[in-house]
Amino acid sequence: MSSPRTADRRRFLQTASAAAAAGLFVGTGRPSRGQESPNERPVFATIGLRNQGWAITSKSTKFADFAAFADVDADVLGANLEQLEKRTGKKADGYKDYREVLDRDDVDAVMIATPDHWHTKISVEAMLAGKDVYCEKPLTLTIDEGKLIERVVEKTGRTFQVGTMQRTESNQRFLKAIALIRDGRIGEIRKVTCGIGGATGSPEIPAIDPPAGLDWDMWLGPAPEADYRALPEMRTGYGGGVPLYTNCHYAWRNWYEYSGGQMNDWGAHHVDIATWALGADDSGPSKITPVSYSLPVDYKNGYPTVADRYNSPTKFEIHAEMPGGVPLIITSEGDNGILFEGTKGRFFVNRGKLAGKPVEDLESNPLPEGAVEAVYGGPVSENHTANFIDAMKSREQPISDVWSHNRMLETCHLANIAIRLGRELKWDPAKREIVGDAEANSFLSREPRKGYEIQM
Fold first, then answer.
1. CA–CA distance, 341 with 330 (Å, rounded to integer)
2. Which of 24, 56, 173, 206 is spaced 20 to 30 Å from 324 by Cα?
3. Domains of the chain, each with CATH number or no CATH
4. Is the pTM of this model over 0.85?
């Protein structure tokens, strides 16, 4: 169910996209082929291809054709081009520089699965080049990046999907969870706990030459200049085939320079559902309290004092005061998932189960017809890409839009700032700034490295 503000925004964006197609907005670039003929099979390109990049591409070949890939690692690029041809029987062009993808007239939309520190620059430049955008979560590295993306979506009228796939889960557990809450099955919500798991630190990781085929300077991009680091031991299982301890492939999630640790990884999934359930998509917390936390290295003034080890939190318990005074607890302890507690009951949901007495009661007292669809805002799409393409055709925004995503991600970003500074933060969700703390507010943005500024 959309809030009035969300509905107004969507109506604006329909008007904005029509104006953009007519050339009434500066910097929107040429209209995509998808705008000109919405019944055609859209043409996509993927930027950033390891792991999740291929995952979202392979799920999307049912709905779209892929004309191009871009990745700064030649080995990753080559392997994925081969996989695509094997899967679809069609060849795509490969590039190291994503800007060559954005220059193509035949690409309707880009899917972005680079490390987090690249998301905003590529997303903004893609929209200004006339492309719709699907970008993996977490969308941003800082809160101010989120505000910039919102402004560019409004300016260009582009469709923008964020890859928080729990909003479009095929078994609908999370949608059913929100439907239970909206139907009053647990009464008024009194507490929400998001278990997102902890992390581990690392040994000292030496600086070495980057592997052949990897453009390390371009991989760093907007992030601060740094040495490539890795130990010989290799990762196995998911994300395997790269060093277990490194500041590059896969392990970049453990470094604040490129990501936000577990808080922005699993937190971007579960805090999203919790915020949605609380009806706080257009608001946010008023206070963030770091009850306990453990950092793997020493910090001074919010910055790690060494550069040779992982630096994001390994354990934590954060209390966020949400609208209505409802506490949202984000913890590294307990089961991975979300526990909703209300005046009339409680239940737990994650990707494997939806459990508790209110759930058991559905057998004799099912949800009203259409309750899940009401949460989703209409018929539930087959998957996230299908929802994205539907939104491209209608020129609306999809189920996981940039505004709701940024609002929930602000809670995660603020939690990380509170941990880094070791103190409670008061947040003004209307002004979207930290109250009375200039040092903390300095963490809402970060200057890009020279030569990698966003091209507006």
1. 14
2. 173
3. 4-168+384-401 (3.40.50.720), 194-336+404-444 (3.30.360)
4. yes
